[in-house]
Design brief:
With about 350 residues, the protein is of the alpha/beta class. Helix content is about 45%, strand content about 10%. The strands form three sheets. Strands 3-1-2-4 form a four-stranded mixed sheet. Strands 7-6-5-8 form a four-stranded mixed sheet, with helices on both faces. Helix 7 packs across helix 8 and helix 13 crosses helix 14. The longest helix is centred in the last third of the chain and has 20 residues, at about 330-350. It comes from Paracoccus tibetensis. Its cofactor is Zn(2+). Belongs to the MGMT family.
Length: about 350
């Protein structure tokens, strides 16, 4: 049996649902007798209830039975792993359902499995990878980037980036006051916009309101928005990695909040909610001294353009339901699980 990483490393990967451990390790939960893949969307166990295995046979031998959600011993993981590997090998390929079917896979099955594991379909993941590859190639040549990214036409390439950034690619080349780039995370790719001193925007790429948010940020910056990275972008990526791995509950980054005075008061109050805790909209309204402004608080929460750093995911319904998160309820649940585990670890450490 091959050697496995240490308990803390594997537990952090479990909390982050890190796909890098797919096929490398499984977790057995002593309190339920079930073993899972580390990317399983089920509620995460306490660290003391985890046992680690190199493969499904070892887990079964130890008396654990496979999880029905992530199917760690079935054919589904092999299918997902094969398509994920194909995407990593050629991120610029323009995948279609016909391509998936040509490989002998049922597109609806693939769609269901990827959404269950990653919260998005395989084709959505492929599109994000293709856009990211195009952004990285953009400074060299608009036409070359269009070809390299696998878009069918230059107009299609420009339209995709115009939808995201509110500018044609040519307008975004060269130095700018702020630079936009992709950041890969275990919860999906994000777009970060930062200058040399502040982070202006951090959003998941598939959020429906992303184009609107990018246009507003561009307007605040006077249209001076380029593609690339700054030191703040690098700092943001490192902080996100530690946060989503359950290693650091803080996202202490220099922010530039673009909003009204009321919106900024709501966003500052959100940043005061400790990791591992939640608030209702009514509680948040009371915290800023406007107890009758619950709806306005909810609207300000929805207008937040700094996901995770301004933790609007920590606001839940008055009935305790996880609703109203533009990044997806599955992400909200996962973020709260990560933060609860971090808070528990902090309490146990003293």
């Amino acid at each position: 049996m091959r050697d496995l990483p240490g308990h803390d490393q594997l537990y952090a990967a479990l909390l982050a649902r890190d796909p890098a451990y797919e096929g490398q390790a499984l977790v057995g939960v002593t309190s339920t007798g079930i073993f899972c893949r580390l990317t399983c969307p089920a509620r995460k166990p306490r660290p003391e209830n985890c046992r680690w295995f190199a493969d499904a046979d070892a887990a079964r031998t130890a008396g654990f039975r496979p999880c029905k959600r992530c199917q760690p011993g079935g054919e589904a993981p092999a299918l997902v792993a094969a398509l994920t590997a194909a995407l990593e090998q050629d991120p610029t390929r323009r995948w279609t359902e016909a391509d998936v079917a040509a490989l002998g896979h049922d597109p609806s099955t693939v769609r269901r499995l990827f959404r269950r594991q990653f919260g998005q379909s395989f084709l959505q993941m492929a599109r994000a990878a293709r856009l990211r590859a195009g952004a990285q190639a953009l400074p060299e040549s608009v036409i070359a980037a269009q070809l390299d990214a696998g878009f069918e036409s230059a107009s299609g390439f420009r339209a995709a980036f115009r939808r995201l950034f509110g500018h044609a690619p040519q307008e975004m080349r060269g130095p700018g006051v702020a630079l936009a780039d992709w950041i890969d995370t275990p919860l999906g790719p994000m777009i970060a916009i930062a200058d040399e001193s502040h982070l202006h925007l951090l959003e998941f790429t598939e959020r429906k309101a992303l184009p609107q948010g990018l246009r507003r940020i561009s307007a605040h910056l006077g249209g001076r928005l380029g593609l690339g990275r700054t030191a703040v972008t690098e700092r943001t990526e490192a902080a996100l990695a530690a946060f989503l791995a359950g290693q650091d509950g803080r996202l202490d980054l220099p922010l530039r909040l673009h909003g009204t005075a009321f919106q900024q008061s709501v966003w500052q109050a959100l940043r005061q909610i400790p990791p591992g805790e939640t608030r209702s909209y009514a509680q948040l309204a009371a915290a800023i001294g406007a107890p009758t402004a619950t709806r306005a608080v909810a609207a300000a929460n929805a207008a937040n353009r700094l996901a995770l750093v301004v933790p609007c995911h920590r606001v839940i319904g008055a009935d305790g339901q996880l609703s109203g998160y533009a990044g997806g309820v599955w992400r909200k649940r996962r973020l709260l699980e990560i933060e609860a585990a971090f808070a528990r670890k902090a309490r146990e450490a003293g």
